[in-house]
Each structure stands twice: as C-alpha cells, then as structure tokens.
Design goal:
The complex is a heterodimer of chains A (about 240) and B (about 220). With about 240 residues, chain A is of the alpha/beta class. In chain A, about 40% of the residues lie in helices and about 25% in strands. The chains are: A alpha/beta (about 240), B mainly alpha (about 220). Chains A and B meet through α2 and α3 of A and α6 and α7 of B. Bound molecules: adenosine-5'-triphosphate (ATP) and magnesium ion.
Chain lengths: ~240, ~220
C-alpha cells in the first residue's frame, strides 16, 4: 500500500479547473519528481496536499487513512505529517534563522524547547548554516534562505517532504548548495515529492517521474523510461524542449 | 512694544507645570497603546472579518477620522451628560483620544496588513498556525517594523495635539495647567513660553525613546533625529 495515495483529485481556482482528476502514489522512502510545463498544475497538487486549496472531488490517503480537507482538525493533522518548501522560501522576515526553524515546533506543536533547539542547530549545521543561527533572512543569500526553509520544514519531522521548485528562484551558482541538501535527504530515505525543472537532478535522485500536462498526469515511471523514451507526443515535445537547454 | 518678561511667577509654578507635563505624557501613552490595540483589531477585522463586520469597522473609521477630536471629546463630556452619563474630564479625554487614535491607527495598520507578503502568511498556515497566531507572529511584527515610523509620528501627534484638548474640559494636563495658572496673574506669554519648552522636551524624549525602542525591538533603521 502506498504511503500517499492521491485519487482523481479535481481542484479549481474559481471556475477555472486546474486539476482534472489527478492520481498519484508515493511509497515510503520514495522520491517522486513531478514535472511538466508551466501551468500544468504541479504546484496546485502540492497546495491541495497541504490543505491550501480544497479539492472539489477525489481522495487523498496518507498511511491508508482518508483525509477530509473540509475538516480543520484533519487539515491540522495532515500538516503535522507533511511539510512543504516553496519556490520563494517564504521565511519569516522578522525572525532570525533559529526562530524561523523553532517557532512552529515549539509554539504551535508544543514540543519541548530544548529538544527542538538541539534539533534545529543540528539541522542548520547539516544544511551548512551552523554559523548563521542568528542572522535575519534579509542578511542571507537566496540559497542560504532556501536552506533555512528546508531546515524549517525538516524541524517538523514530516513523514513526507514536498519541494516546489526550490531552486528556480536562485542564481545558478547557488543551486548546487540546495540540491546537495536534497540529495542527502534522498539518500537517507526521506519520502519526497519534488517539483523541478532540473532534469539532470531529477534523473539522479528520483525513483519515479510523474509528468503532468493541463491538470492531468500523462505519464509516470522510472526516470530513464520517462525522460529518455516518453510514450506520449506531448511528453516528447516537453522533454525535447527542456533537455535541449 | 513694552512688555517686560517676568519669569519669576512661572518658575514658582514650575512644579505644577511639570505635573501637568507628566499627565500629558501619561495620557498620550495610554491613548496611544489603547488606540494601537483597537487599530490592530480593527485592521484585522477589516481584512479577515465577514462583510458586516468590515462595514462596521469602515463606519467607525469614517466617523472618527472625519470629525474633530475636540467634538468627539465634547460629545463624551457634555453630550452624554444630557443622558445622565457623567464621566470625569480625564476619563472622557482618555476615552475620546483612544477611540480617535484607534480609528487613525486602524487605517495606518491596514496598510501594514496589506503589505504583508501573502507567501509569509501561507508559510505560517502550512506550519499549522491559526489566524490569530499568523497575526501575532507574522503580521504584528511586520506592521511594527514597516509602519513603525508612521506609528511613532502619530504618537507625537496625540502627545502634543490630542492631549491639549483636555484644557477645555478642565483636565490638568500641561496646557490646561498653564491656562489655569495664567488666568490668575495674566502672565500668558511667560507661561506659554515655558509650556512650549516643556512640550519640546516631551517630544524629544518621546522621539529618542521611540527610535531606540524601534531599533532594539524591530530592527527599524530609523535615525534618532
Ligand atoms: N491563486 C491562483 N488563482 C487563480 N489561478 C491560479 C492560481 N494559482 C495558479 N493558478 C492557475 O492554475 C494553473 C496551474 O497552476 P500551477 O501553479 O499549479 O502550475 P505549475 O505546474 O506549478 O506551473 P509552474 O511550472 O509555472 O510553477 C495555471 O493555469 C495558473 O494560472
Ligand atoms: Mg509551480
């Protein structure tokens, strides 16, 4: 049984249908890359999963249990199990690095302060920011901020980590420092859904690639299969374009 | 012109004037903090509240920012007396100034609410924050930081302009005290010269205090002067 099971999810922004029946499985410890053209609905899938956008129909199961996104309690519960990192890092500008990472575990999840602080320092050291514990976001580079955002997500000890184009807002020379962190996580068996346009990286870390187009999944399989020998014309066109540059 | 300044009487009353200055400062501070709380609540309700609540906030703001504070305080002091509601001058002044400040600060803070990055709010939401937690951990500090200069200016406005209204309803704040004393010996010019000096001292203390506080609490990069 997959750890995360998404079935026929339909979602709309107003009257504009953005997801038209998306299904997707993620096993425990698996890294699934979500790829596809701009506007195909990749971010929307992640937003639905963390309860930022209510699905119109379809179902989401985590660990076999169905999630009712209309219930505030269940949405809260799901946010204890999944963490998301956005493209624009979204750090709290008025807090230093440490507080960005520890605020939610301590003040929202009510975990023990000592334990959380120890974990936060360890996480920040592992993303290479052990020297920046008390810097504010506006004193950090984009790559550093994004690594703080990843540490903040990990401090929640999520079962599933959702990463939405976490490198696409970064200057090219900063991309690798963030990819290194994700590569480590993958190696350690973190379950992840990774939205990315970095095809070389996807090929390297993903166990499976899911390709979306116009709000639907059009192909899914191992990276070699999807990236090198796409079955659909649409996917061939997309990868042809993206892999050429 | 043949006026001879005689500051002697004024120096004798310096103690009373200083007491007046202290009352002015306390009134200004209380009205500002009360107003800031109302402003925060008003801006929150205006942004997140249901439609009828938003309309109510609008009405409050429109009414209190488009009528003179003097009239509002007269209304509380003399107007309500007609309905046998008799409050002391101090209380009416404080209440009036607080409500008035609350309306202006609702407008000022609303701008702060609108300038919060939606992304930061979403980050808070997915970390499990409730609306109230988002307001207290993200919006309030953001407002404090971005509109702190506007808030600080507004405090000075209340301090020197707002509180002096007390003079007309018998509150012994700085202006009121000076008027009471000058009525006795007609040394208006001397009293008001000294009072002007005291207001400037109050304003300077407040400005420096606010700038230092802003720097320490919110990393506001404001100059002291
Ligand atoms: N807040 C919103 N309100 C209305 N429409 C939206 C909103 N966010 C996204 N959309 C629309 O939903 C569709 C899917 O958007 P989504 O962000 O999921 O695409 P994406 O695959 O992540 O694209 P990208 O690669 O550009 O990030 C797009 O047509 C977009 O215009
Ligand atoms: Mg996207």
């Amino acid at each position: 049984m997959p750890h995360l099971e998404v079935r026929d999810v339909v979602a709309r922004y107003g009257s504009h249908e953005v997801l038209s029946g998306v299904s997707l499985d993620v096993d425990r410890g698996e890294v699934v890359a979500l790829v596809g053209p701009s506007g195909s609905g990749k971010s929307t899938v992640l937003r639905v999963l963390v309860g930022l956008l209510q699905p119109v129909s379809g179902s989401v199961r985590v660990g076999g249990q169905a999630v009712d996104y209309r219930s505030a309690g269940q949405v809260r519960a799901i946010r204890n199990r999944m963490a998301i990192v956005f493209q624009q890092y979204n750090l709290f500008q008025n807090m230093d690095v440490m507080r960005n990472v520890t605020l939610a575990p301590i003040r929202i999840k009510r975990r023990d302060r000592r334990e959380v602080e120890t974990l936060a320092v360890a996480l920040l050291e592992r993303v290479g920011l052990g020297q920046k514990l008390h810097a504010f976001p506006d004193e950090l580079s984009g790559g550093q901020q994004q690594r703080v955002a990843i540490a903040r997500a990990l401090a929640l000890r999520p079962e599933i980590l959702l990463l939405d184009e976490v490198t696409s807002a970064l200057d090219p020379e900063l991309v690798n420092e963030v990819l290194d962190v994700i590569r480590d996580l993958a190696r350690e068996g973190m379950t992840m859904i990774l939205v990315s346009h970095e095809m070389a990286f996807v090929r390297e870390v993903a166990d499976r690639v899911v390709m979306m187009d116009k709000g639907q999944v059009i192909e899914s399989g191992p990276p070699a299969e999807i990236l090198d020998a796409p079955r659909t014309e649409r996917a061939r066109e997309f990868f042809g374009k993206i892999l050429r540059h | 012109m043949n006026y001879t300044f005689q500051f002697g009487v004024v120096w004798r009353d310096l103690g009373a004037l200083m007491d007046g200055a202290l009352v002015t400062f306390q009134l200004g501070l209380l009205a500002f903090w009360g107003g800031a709380l109302i402003g925060l609540a008003g801006a929150a309700l205006k942004t997140f509240g249901p439609r009828p609540v938003r309309a109510l906030v609008d009405t409050y703001v429109v009414f209190l920012t488009n009528t003179p504070a003097l009239i509002q305080i007269y209304f509380l002091y003399f107007g309500l007396a007609e309905f046998r509601i008799r409050w002391s001058g101090e209380f009416c002044l404080l209440l009036g100034l607080t409500l008035n400040a609350g309306a202006y600060l609702t407008m000022i803070m609303r701008a702060g609410f609108l300038s919060v990055r939606r992304a930061e709010m979403e980050a808070g939401e997915v970390l499990g924050m409730t609306r109230l937690q988002q307001i207290s951990y993200i919006i309030a500090p953001h407002i404090a930081r971005t509109i702190y200069p506007a808030l600080a200016n507004f405090f000075i406005v209340i301090l020197v302009m707002g509180t002096s209204i007390g003079a007309v309803i018998g509150v012994d704040e700085l202006t009121g005290t000076a008027i009471t004393l000058a009525t006795v010996n007609y040394r208006w010019l001397e009293y008001f010269t000294v009072v002007a000096g005291l207001y400037i001292v109050l304003t300077l203390i407040a400005s420096v205090g606010l700038a230092l506080f802003g720097r320490w609490a919110f990393r506001v990069k404001a100059r002291v002067f």
